[in-house]
Structures are given as C-alpha cells and as structure tokens.
Amino acid sequence: MAATDKPLLIKRYASRRLYNTETSDYVTLEDIAKFIRAGREVQIVDLKTGDDLTRQYLLQIIAEHESRGESVLGVDLLTDLVRSYTSQAASVVPQFLTASFEMLRDGQSKAMENMTKSNPLLNMPGFDAMRTQQAAFFKAMTGGMIPGAARDEAAAKPADDLETIKAQLAEMQDKLSKLGK
C-alpha cells in the first residue's frame, strides 16, 4: 500500500460490498480501519449514486470497536456528543474535537522525537529492536494515532548527532564511575 496524497477510493456496490479500486478486490471494515491506522486517507462512495459515505462507515468502524470492548469514548463523552447535536454547541464541537486531536498527535510526535534525540543508547546493540517495541507500545497505548511520518522522522537520526550522543554517553560513564568510588 503506497502512501499518497490522494485518498484510497472504496466503492460500495448495491450488495453493500466494499471494493478497493487500487487493488481491485473486496475489503471489509477492518481492512479499511487498517488502511486508516497506517496513515492512509480513505474515501467511500456509493457506486450507483456517487454519494460520499465515508462518515457513515467511519462511524460504523468506531461503533464496532467500541462494542468489542475497545472503549476509547466514555459514556460521559458520548452523552456530551449527543447533547451537542441538540444545542448551540453543535457549531463549536467539531472544531474543538479537531483541534484537540491535532494537539494530541503533535504532542505524541514530539514525545517520540524527544525520546529518540535524548537517548544515548542509540548506537547500542539491540537498540533497533527496543525502538520497534517502543513504537509498538506507543501505538497500542494511543490506538495508532501517531502519524507515520512523525514516527519515521523521529526514528531517523542525522549523523551529526552522533558526536553529541557520544559526549553524553561519556559524561554518563564518568558520573557512574565517580558514584562507584
């Protein structure tokens, strides 16, 4: 699945089956959820009418995850969302939720970046495996909301940072040897 600026087009047939136009095969809601978790934008349209059904299917994916016990949305939040449809808050809620998720994504990206920048163990044997486990942990804890580009950027270390890391490691070793005396 190639990353692209163009959304992955999924067509819904009259039989309600979903068709991936890139791979020319049928997909499930779980497949669509995997595409989205991988950072891909998806657009779902009705083949006959051309209506955009993306929102409807995204809500269905969320409902299925919530019903399986993968609760992200608490009852209080869901109650507030229902209330927002019948009040003046309906005009503010979408912008608030969008801004909140953007702040969350930015914060997670910066946390990952800071952890890799300040880690003197970058050149230690087995560090790549540990980094992979760390990324998997963050993905599990955040429901995969860490953008792939930010994760890849945080994992890539410029060569000029090597000297800084070596100096930090030497300083730590010096401090440890002084503590042992």
TrEMBL record:
This is Polyhydroxyalkanoate synthesis repressor PhaR. It comes from the Bacteria. InterPro entries: PHA_DNA-bd_N (IPR012909), PHA_reg_PhaR (IPR010134), PHB_accumulat (IPR007897). It holds the Pfam family PHB_acc_N. Residues 75-110 form the PHB accumulation regulatory domain. Residues 9-69 form the PHA accumulation regulator DNA-binding N-terminal domain. GO terms for biological process: regulation of DNA-templated transcription.
